[in-house]
Amino acid sequence: MSAAITVLSAQGFARATSVAIAEQAGLSTGALHHHFATKEDLFIAVLDDVTAHVIALFADLREGRGGSSELADALIKSLWSVYGKAAYWAVWEINIGWRSDKALCKQLADHRRNSRDRMDEAIRDNSFLSDRTKNTLIALLPFILSAMRGMFLETFANREDSFFQSQLDVLAGLLKTRLDQAAAQRRRGQLAANN
After folding, report:
1. I need a labelling partner for 134 at 20 to 30 A (CA). Which of 6, 9, 57, 193 fits?
2. Which residues contact 69 (CB under 8 A, 6 or more apart)?
3. Pick from 4, 6, 1: which is nearest to 17 by CA?
């Protein structure tokens, strides 16, 4: 999978042949096909690997003493560590490469939907997060991921790190505000129930 990510990222979808990937991995094409029957199976494994990294981030997320600001900063930084790297470039190449094949497009759409469901599940199953935090994260996740995808496209413009950091700060600020609003709403509800 690492070889596929490298070839997709460096050479693009059109040049990501089984031969090029096997060569990058130091394998014969026969050995590559022993592990992955088709190149499409390998590309799905790449998508699964990227998804697994994101799911692990949600599973490891903790609400700490730093409150919503610390949580928001940590999550946005962690997500960018996946969405701002070469592995995500490979994801884009797969998306673009499969766009004209209806069957592969459907498979990709199903994979994305399944991946989002698994992310939501990882958030819901995280016992270190309050219900209000879980609900807020699940509600904002589509927007945050869309923003990250858009930011990734900006990497093609060779923008400076300060540009990306300013955008990440905006996302973290939005998430912090929404988490604070959810906490305030919960406190208001508790006060009303106590009166």
Report:
1. 193
2. 172, 176
3. 4
pTM of the model as a whole: 0.85
What's the mean per-residue pLDDT of the chain?
Answer: 91
What's the whole-number mean pLDDT along residues 120-129? 95
Provide the residue type at 62 as one letter: R
Measured CA to CA, the distance from residue 168 to residue 188 in angstroms comes to 30
CA-angle at 34, arms to 55 and 10, nearest 5°:
60
Q: How much is the average pLDDT of 131-149?
A: 93
What are the pLDDT digits (tens) for 47-66? 999 999 999 999 999 987 66
- What CA–CA distance (Å, rounded) separates 46 from 90? 8
Q: Are 71 and 123 in contact (CB under 8 A)?
A: no
pLDDT of residue 154 exceeding 90:
no
- Flag whether pLDDT at 193 surpasses 90: no
